[in-house]
Design a protein that fits this description.
The protein is of the alpha/beta class and about 230 residues long. It contains seven helices and ten strands.
């Protein structure tokens, strides 16, 4: 199956293409430049492969959680490209893609994924590998590190949340950690493939980000009243 996959939920802009046999990936540390980089990276990857969008069977994108702006960019690009080429779309949870990245890199099969969500919170989920898929032991959520309850059993920790909050490392004492893990586009695409095969893809209009956190600011009145997020 030929699919294009990409993710912009972290500071890394990542794009991958499967030609039906193997993956090719481009990755660049983008900061806040995802909107500048994503489409040129996609065009370059397709050009190198000699593909047009209409040669593809589907599009996969990192749905989140993560940077609000990044999630909107990824979803909007997925919708636009898929609508123009009449392609189906699969959104993949970014934290699950981190578990897949950790599995590909380290062979870890029980992964606690944590991204720094700012505001003294993390995006957190825990996954167990079962066959070719992952089962969520803890569904994606946003939570202060002090409130993370470690699920039973042994775990490995992936993501910059473990680097940002030492308390989180303490809660997973004895685990292996890789703070550099981000949701790679190859991982997004790899997780999307069985979902395409199972008929779980959706039309462009139904693609949506997975925000988890729905508010990033307080109103003036709320701030003056002493409320905090």
């Amino acid at each position: 199956m030929r699919i294009l996959a990409f993710g912009t939920s972290t500071e890394v802009c990542t794009v991958a293409l499967c030609d039906g046999v193997r993956w090719t990936e481009r990755t660049e540390r983008a900061g806040s430049r995802h909107s500048e980089l994503l489409l040129p990276m996609i065009r370059a990857l397709l050009g190198d492969a000699g593909f047009s969008l209409r040669d593809l069977d589907g599009i996969a994108f990192g749905a989140g959680p993560g940077s609000f702006t990044g999630l909107r960019i990824a979803c909007g690009v997925a919708q636009g490209l898929s609508l123009g080429a009449d392609l189906a779309v699969v959104g993949v949870a970014s934290l699950e893609a981190m578990a897949q990245t950790a599995y590909a890199k380290h062979g870890w099969k029980r992964v606690a994924a944590a991204l720094d969500a700012r505001m003294q919170e993390i995006y957190f989920a825990a996954y167990v590998r079962e066959g070719e898929r992952w089962r969520a032991e803890v569904d994606p959520c946003v939570v202060p590190p002090a409130e993370v309850a470690r699920p039973a059993g042994s775990w490995s920790g992936a993501g910059n949340g473990f680097g940002a909050y030492p308390l989180l490392v303490e809660r997973f004492a004895g685990a292996s950690f890789d703070e550099r893990i981000v949701p790679s586009a190859v991982a997004v695409g790899t997780l999307a493939l069985p979902r395409f095969a199972a008929g779980e893809a959706v039309a462009a209009s139904a693609a949506a980000p997975l925000y988890v956190r729905h508010r990033v600011a307080l109103t003036t009145a709320e701030r003056e009243a002493g409320q905090t997020l």
